[in-house]
Write a structure and sequence with these properties.
Oligomer: single chain
CATH class of the largest domain: Alpha Beta
Shape: rod-shaped
GO molecular function, one term: phosphorelay sensor kinase activity
CATH topology of the largest domain: Heat Shock Protein 90
Strand content: 15-25%
Strand order of the largest sheet: 4-3-7-6-5
Protein name: histidine kinase
Number of strands: 14
Radius of gyration: 51 Å
Number of helices: 9
Bound molecules: adenosine-5'-triphosphate, magnesium ion
Structural class: alpha+beta
Subcellular location: Cell membrane
EC number: 2.7.13.3
CATH architecture of the largest domain: 2-Layer Sandwich
Keywords: ATP-binding, Cell membrane, Kinase, Membrane, Nucleotide-binding, Phosphoprotein, Transferase, Transmembrane, Transmembrane helix, Two-component regulatory system
Distance between the termini: 52 Å
């Protein structure tokens, strides 16, 4: 994978630059040639005009010495034809001049047996009548050679540039491909075993982002994996202790405890309690799994106050047994809710408020409307120590482990609540002071 991508990058760079240099060279060649011919043209034109001064159109005589001088200056051969007679010719090749005998200045690039020439024909007039032409023939070979020489130099520089580009593209491709490879390796490793493997964030911006994204993802996966393991460990532990308790009780019964009715009754009652604890735990786990697996809940418009009244009613027997009064204040708000789940969440919170309050206490529930719906459930019970607050929504987390045994809590209630509120796109906060009480504040989006 590395080599393929790398060579591709190098090849692309190289081809583009090569094509560019090729085009530039071709254009330079033609531009130089044109430039040369253009500059030659004005020189020769001037020379041709000068030659006219040394032609006597009345006696058909030419001053050969002068003409030789002039033609030498412009490196050209000259042919003078007048009244269909060749008056002067030092061009050693035989060509037909008919097509150049024009009454205006005429130029042409011609090729005679493989050699290039630039030809300029200048008309001669006698009393306003066109009687002949001075033809300058300039061999382009020397000029072209000079252009070729320049071209060669440019070509040399081009190849040097090409070489540099080649090396540079090799380097660039390395800086792209190497970190890419590191990421791929890291992903492949992650497939085999989930460990934190931070890769160096380096290179181009996009590559850096890729590395960063991988590192974040890696961290998240490791966290999730840790949570999963922790959950399995916690759940097994929680399930193990009531089972172990029952095993001891049953063994004692088998070993003779059955004879004594009082002992037998007490043991059976304890076993029954452990079974209750176990089934509560399993039910809690099932609920949690169910909620965690739900992507979206079916929502209906409900009045939160009516729902709270129903929850309070179903908890009344427990509240009464501890002589706790529950007060519900604030106006009803219609919200988009999943009835069963929201019932469960409110139930868990109010149940906690009762469970963690002393007898003859009270609970205040307040509904407020802001840019969100705010429901506060406040008790005046035992409170939660500050250091435990960050964890109370964690699964199986209980502040007082020994007390939990008595009250039978599994530590799952609040994590269920948190999930349900999250599925409603809401938020839950807790404020508490040991000995003074606790307030849970739920914020739910208003129906739009
Ligand atoms: N209103 C409250 N006052 C004081 N402590 C509370 C209150 N609500 C929760 N807690 C503390 O937070 C812990 C976690 O609560 P959570 O509801 O998750 O579990 P639980 O009540 O122990 O068991 P479960 O609800 O699963 O039967 C509790 O064990 C308790 O220590
Ligand atoms: Mg609870």
């Amino acid at each position: 994978m590395e080599n393929k991508l790398r060579y591709r990058l190098v090849f692309s760079y190289f081809s583009i630059i090569f094509l560019l240099i090729f085009l530039i060279n071709i254009s330079i060649y033609f531009i130089l040639q044109n430039f040369y011919i253009e500059s030659k043209k004005s020189d020769i034109l001037f020379a041709a005009k000068t030659v006219l001064d040394y032609i006597d159109v009345y006696s058909n005589k030419v001053d050969k010495e002068k003409i030789k001088q002039i033609q030498k200056d412009v490196y050209s051969k000259v042919v003078i034809i007048m009244d269909n007679k060749v008056l002067y010719n030092d061009f050693n090749k035989v060509i037909s001049y008919n097509e150049f005998m024009k009454s205006e200045v005429f130029t042409k690039k011609i090729n005679i047996s493989g050699e290039d020439f630039y030809l300029l024909s200048y008309p001669i007039f006698k009393n306003g009548i066109h009687i002949g032409n001075v033809i300058f023939i300039n061999p382009l070979e020397e000029a072209l050679n000079r252009i070729m020489n320049i071209e060669k130099q440019i070509l040399f520089v081009s190849f040097v540039i090409l070489g540099i580009v080649f090396l540079y593209s090799f380097y660039i491709s390395k800086t792209i491909v190497t970190p890419l490879n590191t990421v791929v390796d890291a992903i492949e490793n992650l497939k085999d075993d989930i460990v934190l493997r931070e890769i160096k964030v380096d290179g181009y911006k996009e590559i850096r982002r890729l590395c960063q994204a991988f590192n974040e993802m890696n961290k998240r996966i490791v966290e999730l994996d840790k949570k999963r393991r922790q959950f399995v460990a916690d759940a097994s532990h929680e399930l193990k202790s009531p089972l172990a308790g029952m095993k001891v009780l049953v063994e004692s019964l088998i070993q003779g405890g059955f004879e004594d009715k009082a002992v037998r009754d007490e043991f059976l009652q304890s076993i029954n309690k452990e079974i209750d604890r176990l089934s509560k735990l399993v039910n809690g786990l099932l609920e949690l799994a169910q909620i965690e697996n739900a992507d979206e809940l079916k929502m209906t418009s409900l009045n939160i106050k009516e729902l709270l009244k129903e929850v309070i009613k179903s908890l009344e027997p427990i509240a009464k047994s501890k002589n706790i009064s529950i007060y519900l204040n604030g106006d009803g708000i219609i919200l988009n809710l999943n009835r069963d789940n929201m019932f469960r969440a409110l139930y868990n919170l109010i149940e906690n408020a009762i469970k963690y309050s002393n007898e003859n206490s009270k609970i205040d529930i307040l509904i407020e409307r802001d840019d969100v719906a705010k429901i506060t459930i406040r008790d005046y019970g035992i409170g939660i120590p500050e250091e435990d607050l960050p964890y109370i929504f964690d699964r199986f987390y209980r502040v007082d482990k020994t007390r939990a045994r008595k009250t039978g809590g599994a530590g799952l209630g609040l994590s269920i609540v948190k999930h349900i509120i999250k599925l409603h796109k809401g938020d839950i906060e807790v404020k508490s002071k040991v000995g003074e009480g606790t307030a849970f504040i739920i914020k739910l989006p208003l129906e739009v």
